[in-house]
Write a structure and sequence with these properties.
Elements lengths: L33 H10 L19 H7 L25 E5 L2 E5 L12 E3 L19 E3 L9
Antiparallel strand pairs: 1-2, 3-4
Pfam families: COPIIcoated_ERV
Subcellular location: Golgi apparatus, cis-Golgi network membrane
Main location: Golgi
């Protein structure tokens, strides 16, 4: 199948606003996502703006998406490469951001008693999985959040 070629068509590359955080010396020129805006403010060492006023962030607070989250589950998989030092990781609903170098989650939409945080961990391991006799203590762990105890 042949398609006609239109040589006047030009791909327009969008360059979203960084809401004042643009800085060529720091290579901050375009912010096309909400994360880009937050990162630009972090790199400028500025307090994060009100995300409700940021065009790139407005779809994140879409009431329909939040409503659907109450009826959905999730399947998380992947891997992380980390240094051999103490640390932690977590999985949480909502949006995350940084305030004064502290990692914070906005879980306000999910704090009602109708949001069920029950979960099952099928497999979680660190390092090589091929070690004979290695025990992964969280494998097949299940936690049911009873009514009135929705946060675990």
């Amino acid at each position: 199948m042949k398609k006609p070629v239109n040589d006047t068509a030009v791909d327009v590359v969008k360059c979203g606003s960084c809401y004042g955080a643009e800085n060529e010396a720091l290579n901050i020129t375009c912010c096309n996502t909400c994360e880009d805006v937050k990162e630009a403010y972090r790199r400028r060492k500025w307090m994060q703006p009100n995300l409700d006023t940021i065009e790139q962030c407005k779809s994140l607070h879409d009431p329909e998406k939040i409503k659907n989250a109450f009826n959905e589950g999730c399947h998380i998989y992947g891997f992380m490469e980390v240094n051999r030092v103490g640390g932690s990781f977590h999985v949480a609903p909502g949006q995350s951001f940084t305030i004064n170098h502290v990692h914070v989650h906005d879980v306000q939409p999910f704090s009602s008693s109708s949001f069920n945080t029950s979960h099952k961990i099928r497999h979680l391991s660190f390092g090589e999985n091929k070690i004979v006799g290695k025990i992964n203590p969280l494998d097949d762990t299940e936690s049911i959040a009873d009514e009135g105890k929705k946060s675990l």
